[in-house]
Amino acid sequence: MAGEFAFIERLRAIANHPAARGLLDDVAVLDIGAITLVLTHDSLVEGVHFLATDPPESVAWKLLAVNLSDLTAKGATPIGALMGHTLIGDAAWDAAFADGLEQALTHFDVPLLGGDTVRASERHLAMTLIGGAAGPVPSRAGAREGDGLFVTGCIGDPGAGLDLLRRPRVGEGRWTDKAPDARSGPRLREGDELVTAYQRPEPQLAAGQALAPVVTAMMDISDGLLIDAQRLAEASGLAAMIDLDAVPLSAAFKSVRGEARAARLFATTAGDDYQLLFTAADPLPPLPCPVTRIGTMVSGHGIHLHDSDGGVPLPPQLGWQH
Amino acid sequence: MAGEFAFIERLRAIANHPAARGLLDDVAVLDIGAITLVLTHDSLVEGVHFLATDPPESVAWKLLAVNLSDLTAKGATPIGALMGHTLIGDAAWDAAFADGLEQALTHFDVPLLGGDTVRASERHLAMTLIGGAAGPVPSRAGAREGDGLFVTGCIGDPGAGLDLLRRPRVGEGRWTDKAPDARSGPRLREGDELVTAYQRPEPQLAAGQALAPVVTAMMDISDGLLIDAQRLAEASGLAAMIDLDAVPLSAAFKSVRGEARAARLFATTAGDDYQLLFTAADPLPPLPCPVTRIGTMVSGHGIHLHDSDGGVPLPPQLGWQH
After folding, report:
1. Phi, psi torsion values for A258, nearest 5 degrees
2. Alpha-carbon torsion angle B203, B209, B215, B221, nearest 10
3. Tell me, what's the ipTM?
């Protein structure tokens, strides 16, 4: 891990063009005449970012969604995608992946512009997404002391869905660490919408575009609410006070995991959320999307959690680090 | 291989935006107001596109060079790069890679704008390069019957350098298939400039910008002259007649491999060249770079080779297919 941080610090020293935003943001922001380009590159590695048994269609969906999610936080509209695809010798997987990619590109109205295919031993799927922004492009670094800290939607559904996929299903009569094959296995009942939230996430493009002119800072929370709140606070030179009890949970999430402190810590660290985290002066103007205030930006450093029982120690893992 | 072609055909059906150029070009070409964006994404996989024993600095150089090479063929100027990097747990390799990346970015004046780092088991390095073109952007598909077929520079030096790296060195007293470690091993004498051509290729940015207004079709030949000539001919709906004896070879290449038919077939199929292949009406206007006519575009299909001894059968491998 020390090597990883050192490497990223080294890249930060290299990436000294203002458009790189010090590599402290999810995107690069490049002014080209009348339009502002918003550029992001995210990769998925099998066994790290998706399960070998995930349906290939949902991996393709996720590859686009994880990149779109970076654009949403900038209020940008996607212009097109370039894809890097590995061929490891499984034509059926690749064909199903292409089907899923087409569905996802059509669903989100993103043209596929190019890319490359390479032979490899490990599945490693890369995408660069190019977006354009007509107005201001929020960064992570603009939060001001006293701003409210908000999220869109509900938190934790995809994480709970992934956890269900990893569990043995009732009635199978055996315990296994392997994820069930969602292509051929029997369908889950309770938690189906959580599994869908994991396999078919919906980046909040419209919400991002509506929020961009309103917020002081914004980012997506695909790595987990707590770790991303920490990143936003760090980039803004502030601390975030977060009320765990205020974190919005869906009925489906609560039916599977409850809403006690442990469930809330799970929801806020599991990652794979595709909601937006932002700071703004409260009260907000009327918005076309549900948002919930979960905390306040204060002077200091890091994040501080509390709930109705008082202070909550930070869990050892705040989310995904990849 | 059948699965690979089927997959790429499937992607072509999906990539139906005009900017994608049917995935038949090396780049996507996107008009955004006053500027034309030229976008490319190329990846390098260890064991496929570079040797595990290659110096990390030269891998970084090559990652940028292979992407720059796609821009050169469009007469474009680089605007910035996004990089996808794998961390497989070798901090010293990553640090040397970052040094080489900085050298290469500085040498070619390309800002690093962003990207991502992922944990993985296999080294797989991806880059998206964004360029801009002020004038017309040549494609592979514009060649006309009767056009001359030309190359810049000399062909085959990097391929010969790679071959030298793979050979046992004189005086080592053993035969091995493993490439020598170019970081710590004794330096080669004969062929040093061929090894440099492999490890520090120089994409022809200035030549590409000078040629773009002159050519009817242009592409880089990083996969090998013959396979790329076949691609240009196919995209243009023509055949290419190529005189092997006309293919320009450097003095360094000839000193190591000679210039007989076998050497010329090696040079034209080895790949890793960073020269440009283009078609244009002959005679050409004065140009600031050395170019050599190697053939003629004619009606028909595929490529046809000849030399002073008559027709030359096509070799089974025309170049890299990845």
Report:
1. 75, -165
2. 10
3. 0.81
Q: 0.95 cut: is pTM over it? A: no
Give A78's strand partners: A131
Is there a contact between A158 and A194 (Cβ–Cβ < 8 Å)?
A: yes
Average pLDDT over residues A279-300: 96
Q: Are B118 and A43 in contact (CB under 8 A)?
A: yes
- Going by their DSSP bridges, the two strands A112-119 and A77-87 should be labelled as parallel
CB contact under 8 A, B118 and A45: yes
Give the residue on B whose Cα is nearest the Cα of A21.
B113
Structure-token pair, residue A230: 């920490």
- Chain B nearest-CA residue for A122: B122
Between CA A115 and CA B11 the distance in angstroms is: 10
Q: How many CB atoms lie within 10 A of CB A318?
A: 22
Place of tokens 């709140």: A229
DSSP string, A12-49: HHH--SGGGGGG-SSSEEEEETTEEEEEEEEEEEBTTT
Residue that has been written with the tokens 């922001």 in this structure: A29
The residues in B 81-110 lying below 8 A from A, measured between CB atoms, are 82-87, 89-91, 94-95, 98, 101-102, 105
Question: Which of A263-272, B109-118, B187-196, B284-293 is the least confident region?
Answer: B187-196
What are the E-state strand segments in chain B?
A: 28-32, 35-45, 77-87, 112-119, 124-133, 148-152, 217-220, 239-243, 276-280, 291-298, 302-307, 310-312
**Residue B262 exposed, middle or buried by CB count within 10 Å (0-12, 13-18, 19+):** exposed
The position carrying tokens 């595929």 is: B302
CB-based contacts of B296, cutoff 8 Å, min separation 6: B146, B147, B148, B149, B240, B241
Task: Please answer whether residues B236 and B279 qualify as being in contact, where contact means their C-beta atoms are separated by less than 8 angstroms.
Answer: yes
Q: Is A18 on the interface with B (CB under 8 A)?
A: no
Pairing of strands B239-243, B302-307: parallel
